[in-house]
Design goal:
Helix content of chain A: 10-25%
Shape of chain A: elongated
Number of helices of chain B: 4
Strand content of chain A: over 45%
Largest sheet of chain A: 22 strands, antiparallel, barrel
Structural class of chain A: mainly beta
Shape of chain B: elongated
Low-confidence stretches of chain A: 1-44, 127-158, 267-280
Largest sheet of chain B: 8 strands, mixed
Oligomer: heterodimer
Helix content of chain B: under 10%
Radius of gyration of chain B: 27 Å
Radius of gyration of chain A: 32 Å
Low-confidence stretches of chain B: 1-13
Distance between the termini of chain A: 27 Å
Number of strands of chain A: 57
Distance between the termini of chain B: 59 Å
Number of strands of chain B: 28
Strand content of chain B: 35-45%
Mean pLDDT of chain A: 78
Structural class of chain B: mainly beta
Largest interface: A-B, 84 and 73 residues
Chain lengths: 949, 389
């Protein structure tokens, strides 16, 4: 606030306003207490004597301020046309003002500190009922306008915090800010700045800022930054964001300038906020198929064991599926689990799950929000075909130290945050760990000796060097370890560190440069038999550099451009003996190295107020680097071990194989009126790193493989079209999206593939074509007592393998369903706030069972009856249905207490339906038996306790 | 908290329920070829059968009336003799390890199947079979072998086990139905000691390719849980060892993962088995089986009951004195046939009884239920196997 380049009108009040703004909260609270204690005595003393004829309102203000020791706050746009005629002698201030404002449509309110607020249409409420003019006509109007708010306020008894915020809001909204140096040049100038939460100073993402109720508007980026091009002169900016109170600012824009905006949280709902049309970011946003969920919404959704889970909530969005309950591998619009770019800030997370996939790797206390791009993927993202899941963590509180802790059945978490240098830099650190072994001990004997544990740690440091430069340091560490009653211990983990520099060149141009290091590793130890004791290790390391510029050319064009480069180093397998007696031969697969680089440019072009186009191009290049010995195969023959003719060595640094190509990112929006818009997008992508798996679920031990001489990059294109319409003052968003996509060189495994420690893995995988299409319906209500969303998706995903040279023909060369092809998918997520302390959430899921391969017969072999399989994915498991219920109980909302606590009590799988995770046939004691396996086959109650300090 | 935990973990490891879906299995089965071509001294037996629909309760369908021959790459041909239950047996085959061989099958329906040519894989003798204790849970029966020339690498085993066990009580008398009286049991009719057998039902394969020497160390063949009848007196296992080609090993590994190792969360997906046998006229037809040629190594071991092996056969009923008069009463006890007209008694028989010895206190015989006295009631036979020692 204090860094505004502004003056205030009238000038002499600037100092006064700043004092109010910066006054310690306690003072304000005390002031209000004083008002409640003795309101009449204070007011009674203010008497004025005024004689004015057709005077300006400013003159009245000067006289009254002089006589009654009060201070006026008003919007000069509302008063500058007034002519005041008033003759009173030693009259009460309130009486005098009532007479002065008679039939002007203006109202006033006086607080205990002698501040007089002038407002149009209604009187501001200052905790106690405002003084109301007793003139008949106005009183009627006012009752009409004001009755509901007064009653609501009485019922909910707003806290002093709310009154304080209301006061500040009223002051700030009434003020005129002057930005920039005066200039006679006509034309547009750029206004830029941050939108932040007034309380925590955290940036507000996706807040919409609209100029003068026009179509000229922008949304803030992930740092809460905006840049707006607008004509010189006087404007009203309307600022809105989900979960925050709507606000507005009056600005006199004389030239280029910075203008920061602080918004008040809507935790304690203010009743007299008018919901306006601009909440409709889904209508106005150019991005298609993008969903943003903030952590508040995520925490309301009931999940197993009560652990708020980012990925599990993402799975309830239309177009997102998974193969089963214990799998956090996502399939977005027919893409495979490895086709999602999962970013934690800027770091790539290769395995986003903990504990057999029951938990996602992102601690709910640290996450701020999650964005999922599934159709129009901005040009700055690349490297994965299907989607981008961008998880952002919070910045630490720059004003005060805070902490929270949670205790659940399986995990506990703790996080701390606070300023390092007040208002300049902050830290946030969060850690989570599990104590699940007690649960495993209760398992049937078969799993009795199982062990599992995990932890994760997040760190974020924000350092504002000056107004133009900010540094962000983030770190992430996760580790999992489990053993399922065998002598084999699995462990895996992510390690990520990044440094980001955000630099603002000027209002029109800013830049973000990030460099960082990501690692994913896993290890399998089998050490019980000393002769065969061994350890298998795998890791991916990537070092990246990204530079991203955003240039607000003018009100019609916003350009984004930059480059990215990733250096990969994979150790695809290291097999080593453990102990002296082990006869295990050490075996190491060749290290894979590659460089993936991309240049991108995109332009968001507002053709007219109704039509916007975003056109982007990304040119990506992939170099498979030496040193490496590349397997040679007989030319024209299928890649099989039998056709392996030898190897060709390449020296270090040599570009062994280069793939490159353009990726197009096009999207357009056309408004069909204020509440409706039509969007279309076309996207292409290229993917150079692949996960190889022959299990249904994404297993922690899946192999990642870079494209190389034999494994081509996967390419794909997606076409989508959507219609968006909002109802009921934009509180209800609806959308329909259809899409079609195709994929080439999609890797599927061959029958009997060996994926671990394979020196010629290209012989065990095959390239397939893929196609996917679907239609997604979404109805979402984000505000109000009842909120949530309902989605229905019909979609198909099919693969085809018909090239005998590329591998074995599957299912006779016909299209076959991918293992995550679940045509019908219905989700209902609802939350009902009974009151501020108690809310109930319901989550309901239905989908068609996923395809599986079932036996075509049984045969007798090696002393037992055995199942014979043929066509891949020709059958389906039974349909999936689940309903979860949760109750969130907050402690009291008193601000000034040491800790705030809350409880979450819920039931996962309320109906106790035994949803099959898989169906399988196994030979036991000589005969084939069919079974269905449910992971959570009964209702699971849970309880969670959270504490904030 | 703990209560919640118990509820929620009941199913975390999986609620597994039997499941039988409706499947459109083709009625005519695919040809299944099983058996190892023995390049050593003994005979070789190939079994031909057909797959059956999953829902079908009918047991194995054998392929009878086929002609099965072994052809060498040098043109030599060996014919087999058909036997019962789809078996086709070759005599000892003087195979040349430098040549390759294939199986040629002509079914009675005049469809010809051929395998690929395969090499003869060297098979070292089994070093030992060990009985290894696993705490108090039971014992593992493990196999150990090695090939000093390091060129076998892929192994398969099958086994047949035989064990001797006793009934709870020793009977020196028997009821003679011819004379309707109790006589002294002749030694040939003993029912105290029985022998029972079983054979492997799992695919037992191992590869030493990840080890620096061709060594198989303590590969578990089977597990005998503590208190099991198999070790109650004496146990014997006869292990057959085959050497496999890498392809055959991979084939069996896939069959194993398709049919035995399923049911966990991270299961590999079941997949199509492609062996080395093809239908000559329709190469896309599914044929189950993999022809492999190696000599067969066998080793038999015997193991006595381990100390403190807690196998105790106790009779549920105390001994009963069966009176020697009236005749109808003891006939009722020893045959289960109630006399006509009925005899009133306070202690009617609770099943069929076997006399154990003369009543030392008076007339009648000390007897007990047949389950306690006749070991054959537990599935075995009183005939001692020829190899028993």
């Amino acid at each position: 606030m204090t860094d505004f380049l502004m003056q205030t009108l009238p000038g002499k009040r600037a100092a006064r306003r700043l004092t109010i703004r910066l006054a310690p909260r306690l003072a304000a609270v005390l002031a209000f207490m004083a008002v409640l204690a003795a309101p009449q005595s204070l007011r009674a003393q203010r008497r004025v004597t005024i004689a004015l004829d057709s005077a300006r309102f400013d003159t009245l203000v000067q006289i009254v301020e002089h006589q009654a020791a009060v201070h006026f706050f008003y919007d000069t746009t509302q008063t500058d046309s007034l002519k005041i005629t008033l003759h009173v002698k030693d009259e009460l201030l309130e009486k005098a003002l009532t007479l002065a404002l008679d039939r002007t449509g203006l109202f006033f309110a006086v607080d205990a500190n002698g501040n007089v607020f002038i407002s149009k249409g209604y009187a501001l409420e200052l905790g106690t009922p405002a003084f109301q003019p007793d003139t008949g006509a106005i009183a009627k109007t006012e009752q009409h306008v004001n009755r509901r708010p007064v009653q609501d306020a009485a019922r909910e008894t707003p806290s002093t915090e709310e009154q304080d915020a209301t006061l500040r809001e009223a002051v700030i909204q009434a003020k005129l800010f002057i930005v920039g140096e005066k200039s006679d040049n006509p034309g547009n100038v750029t206004l830029a700045g941050y939108v932040r939460d007034a309380k925590s100073e955290e940036p507000i993402i996706g807040a919409s800022i609209v100029v003068d109720n026009s179509h000229n508007g922008v949304a803030t980026d992930q740092y809460g930054y905006y840049s707006l091009s607008l004509p010189r002169g006087r404007h009203v900016l309307y600022i809105q964001s989900i979960g925050m109170r709507d606000t507005r600012r009056q600005v006199q824009v004389n030239g280029e300038g910075r203008f920061n905006i602080e918004m008040q949280g809507q935790v304690l709902a203010l009743r007299n906020v008018v919901i306006s049309s601009e909440k409709a970011s889904n209508i106005r946003s150019l991005t298609m198929g993008m969903q943003r969920l903030d952590i508040k919404a995520i925490k309301q959704v009931p999940v197993v064991f009560g652990e708020a889970d980012v990925l599990r909530v993402v799975l309830t969005l239309p177009g997102v599926k998974s193969v089963g309950e214990s799998s956090t591998g996502m399939n977005v619009r027919g893409g495979a689990a490895d086709q999602n770019l999962i970013l934690l800030n800027d770091a790539t997370i290769y395995n986003p799950s903990h504990f057999f996939g029951l938990f996602s790797a992102f601690s709910p206390e640290i996450v701020k929000d999650v964005e999922l791009y599934k159709s129009s993927i901005p040009a700055q993202y690349g490297g994965r075909l299907s989607s981008v899941l961008d998880v952002s963590t919070r910045e630490g509180n720059k004003k005060q130290y805070e902490g929270s802790a949670g205790i659940g059945l399986l995990t506990s978490r703790l996080n701390l945050e606070g300023p390092i240098v007040k208002d300049k830099s902050s830290f946030i650190i969060g850690a989570r760990t599990t104590y699940a072994n007690w649960l495993l001990n209760l398992l049937p004997d078969q799993y009795k000796n199982s062990r599992a544990s995990f932890y994760d740690i997040n760190l974020g440091i924000t350092q504002e060097i000056n107004k133009r430069n900010t540094l962000f340091i983030t770190g992430y560490l996760s580790q999992d370890r489990f053993n399922l009653n065998s002598d084999t211990t699995y462990s895996y983990g992510n390690r990520n560190a990044s440094l980001k520099w955000k630099h603002i060149f000027n209002n029109k141009l800013n830049m973000e440069a990030v460099t960082g290091y990501d690692r994913y590793q896993y290890r399998i130890d089998a050490i019980n038999n000393p002769v065969t004791a061994s350890r298998l290790g795998f890791d991916i390391n990537q070092f990246y550099l990204k530079d991203h510029f955003k240039y607000y050319l003018n009100s019609k064009h916003t350009l984004e451009f930059g480059f990215q480069s990733i250096h990969y180093k994979l150790h695809p397998g290291t097999y080593t003996p453990v102990g002296d007696k082990s006869l295990t031969i050490p075996d190491t697969l060749q290290t894979e190295r590659a460089l993936e680089s991309a240049l991108f440019l995109s332009d968001e072009y507002k053709v007219t107020g109704d039509l916007s186009i975003e056109a982007g191009i990304r040119y990506s290049m992939f170099n498979f680097l030496g040193p490496s010995n590349v397997n040679d195969y007989a030319p024209g023959e299928p890649l099989t071990a039998g056709n392996l003719t030898g190897t060709t060595p390449y020296p270090g640094g040599k570009f062994i194989k280069t793939y490159s190509g353009p990726e197009y990112r096009l999207s357009a929006r056309y408004s069909l009126g204020e509440n409706t818009s039509l969007k279309a997008s076309f996207n292409t992508g290229r993917q150079y790193i692949h996960m190889l798996s022959n299990t249904t679920a994404m297993a922690p031990t899946d192999i990642w493989k870079l494209s190389d001489t034999h494994i081509l990059p996967t390419t794909g294109a997606q076409y989508s079209l959507g219609l968006y319409r909002n109802f009921a003052s934009n509180t209800i968003e609806t959308s329909v999206e259809v899409y079609y996509r195709n994929m080439d060189n999609y890797l599927d495994y061959k029958d009997g593939a060996v994926l671990v420690m394979n020196h010629h893995i290209e012989t065990d995988v095959m390239s397939t074509h893929g196609r996917a299409y679907g239609v997604e319906f979404l109805v979402r209500k984000q505000t109000g007592k009842l909120n949530g969303w309902f989605s229905y998706t019909y979609s198909r995903t099919q693969l085809q393998m018909n090239d005998p040279l590329a591998g074995e023909i599957v299912n006779g060369g016909n299209w076959y369903p991918a293992s995550y092809d679940e045509p019908h998918d219905v989700n209902l997520v609802g939350n009902y706030k009974v009151n501020h302390r108690f809310s109930v959430s319901l989550n309901t899921v239905y989908n068609t069972g996923r395809p599986i391969t079932l036996p075509i017969g049984v045969f007798y072999y090696a002393g037992s009856e055995r199942a014979l399989y043929s066509d891949r994915n020709a059958y389906r498991i039974p349909d999936y249905f689940r309903m979860d219920l949760a109750m969130n109980i907050e402690g009291n909302h008193k601000i000034h207490q040491k800790t705030h606590n809350s409880w979450t009590i819920g039931v996962y799988n309320l109906t106790g339906r035994q949803n099959p995770y898989s169906v399988y046939f196994v030979s036991q004691n000589g005969v084939v038996n069919g079974y269905k396996l449910s992971i959570f086959g009964s209702a699971i109650p849970y309880i969670n306790f959270n504490i904030r300090f | 908290m703990r209560r919640f935990g118990i509820i929620c973990c009941i199913c975390i490891a999986g609620c597994v329920k039997p499941y039988s879906p409706h499947l459109n299995n083709p009625p005519t089965g695919y040809l299944v070829v099983e058996g190892n071509i023995n390049a050593g001294a003994g005979p070789s037996t190939i079994i031909l059968s057909r797959s059956v629909p999953l829902t079908d309760t009918a047991s194995e369908v054998f392929e009878e009336g086929a002609t099965v021959a072994l052809e060498g790459s040098d043109g030599t041909t060996y014919a087999s003799a058909p036997g019962a239950n789809g078996t086709y047996t070759f005599g000892a085959l003087p195979l040349d390890t430098t040549k390759t061989y294939r199986l040629d099958i002509h079914t009675a329906g005049d469809v010809e199947y051929q395998s690929d040519y395969v090499h003869v894989i060297p098979n070292p003798p089994i070093d030992s079979i060990s009985i290894m204790y696993k705490g108090t849970d039971g014992v593992y029966v493990n196999v150990n072998t090695h090939n000093p020339s390091d060129n076998t690498r892929y192994y398969q085993w099958s086994y047949s086990e035989t064990w001797e066990y006793n009934s709870a009580e020793y009977s020196s008398m028997e009821f003679d139905p011819v004379t309707d009286t109790v006589i002294v049991r002749p030694p040939g009719n003993q029912i105290f000691t029985c022998w029972k057998g079983d054979s492997s039902t799992d695919i037992l394969i191992y590869t030493s390719t990840k080890l620096s020497h061709d060594v198989v160390s303590e590969f578990p063949l089977t597990f005998i849980a503590e208190g099991d009848q198999r070790l109650s007196v004496e146990y014997s296992i006869n292990v057959h060892q085959y050497a496999l080609s890498a392809d055959c090993y991979n084939y069996l590994l896939l069959m194993q993962s398709n049919t035995e190792n399923l049911g966990s969360i991270f299961d590999p997906l079941p997949s199509n088995l492609k062996g080395n046998i093809h239908c000559v006229s329709d190469p896309s037809q599914t044929v189950v089986g993999f022809v492999n040629v190696s000599s067969e190594q066998t080793l038999r071991i015997f193991a006595r009951r381990p100390p403190y092996w807690p196998y105790i056969f106790t009779c549920p009923e105390p001994d009963t004195i069966v009176p020697s008069v009236p005749k109808g009463l003891y006939t009722w006890f020893f045959t289960g046939i109630a006399p006509v007209p009925p005899i009133n008694t306070d202690h009617p028989p609770m099943g069929i009884y076997v006399p154990i010895e003369m009543n030392p206190m008076g007339p009648g015989w000390v007897s007990n239920l047949i389950e306690c006295v006749d070991c054959r009631q537990l599935g075995g036979t009183t005939t001692q196997p020829w190899f028993w020692q």
